[in-house]
Design goal:
Number of strands: 0
CATH architecture: Up-down Bundle
Strand content: under 5%
Number of helices: 7
Shape: globular
Order of helices and strands: HHHHHHH
CATH topology: Four Helix Bundle (Hemerythrin (Met), subunit A)
Distance between the termini: 46 Å
Length: 214
C-alpha cells in the first residue's frame, strides 16, 4: 500500500521514435540546403540573375521544412533527441547564413546581423540551460519574429523592382525590433522559471522539435 509520503505515480514516457523518421529527414534536408544556398548566393553576387532566384527558392524550400518538420514530429510522435538538437541548429544556420551574406555584400549593417545572431543563439542556449526547471514555450512574439525574419530575407533575396527595396528594409527593421523585444521577454521568463521553486521538469517529456526555435 502506498504511503502518503510516496511520490504520485506518473505515466510512463512514450518510447522515443526511430531516428530515421520524416521529421528528422526534413530537418537534415534543411541542414544540407544551407551550403547549397550559400553557394548560389555567392555565385549570383546579388546581380538579379537566375542564380539569385534559385537561391531565393532554396531558402523558401528550406524555411518550409522548418514549419513542416515540427508539425510532423508533434502530429505523429516522431520526437527524438536528434531532432531536439538538430532542429534549432538548422534554423539558426539557415537564417544566420543569409544575414551574414547580406552584411558581406553591404545590404545589411553588421550590427543588425550581430544583434539577431546573438539573440538567436543566446536564447537557444538559455532555454537549454533552464530546461531542467521547465520549458519556455514558443510565444506568439517568437513566432512573429520568425515570420518577419523569413519574409525580410525572402524580400532581400528576390530580384524585385527597386521600389520594393524600401519595403524589404522596413520588414527587416521590424524583424530586428521584434527579435530584441522577444529576446528580452525570454530572458525574463527564464529568470522567473529559474527562481520558481518546483520539481525539475523531465526534459524529454516536455520538449518537442520547434519548441527551441522561436
Amino acid at each position: 500500500m502506498m504511503s502518503s509520503g510516496d511520490p504520485t505515480p506518473t505515466a510512463a514516457e512514450p518510447p522515443e521514435a526511430a531516428i530515421h523518421n520524416p521529421a528528422n529527414i526534413l530537418t537534415l534536408l534543411r541542414l544540407v540546403l544551407v551550403p547549397v544556398f550559400v553557394v548560389l548566393v555567392v555565385w549570383s553576387e546579388f546581380d538579379e540573375s537566375l542564380l539569385q532566384a534559385l537561391a531565393c527558392a532554396v531558402f523558401v524550400i528550406a524555411s518550409l521544412t522548418d514549419f513542416v518538420d515540427g508539425w510532423v514530429a508533434r502530429r505523429f510522435g516522431y520526437v527524438t533527441k536528434l531532432g531536439k538538437v538538430a532542429d534549432p541548429i538548422a534554423d539558426k544556420a539557415l537564417t544566420g547564413a543569409a544575414l551574414v551574406l547580406f552584411s558581406l555584400y553591404g545590404l545589411l549593417p553588421w550590427w543588425a546581423t550581430g544583434v539577431i545572431l546573438v539573440r538567436e543563439w543566446g536564447i537557444t542556449l538559455l532555454r537549454l540551460w533552464v530546461i531542467r526547471y521547465g520549458v519556455i514555450a514558443a510565444s506568439r512574439g517568437g513566432k512573429l519574429k520568425t515570420a518577419l525574419q523569413t519574409l525580410a530575407i525572402v524580400l532581400y533575396l528576390c530580384p524585385l523592382p527597386g521600389w520594393m527595396d524600401t519595403i524589404a528594409e522596413w520588414v527587416m527593421w521590424a524583424a530586428v525590433a521584434v527579435t530584441v523585444i522577444t529576446g528580452v521577454d525570454y530572458v525574463r521568463q527564464a529568470v522567473r522559471l529559474r527562481d520558481t521553486p518546483r520539481e525539475p521538469a523531465r526534459a524529454g517529456a516536455a520538449v518537442r522539435e520547434g519548441d527551441l526555435g522561436a
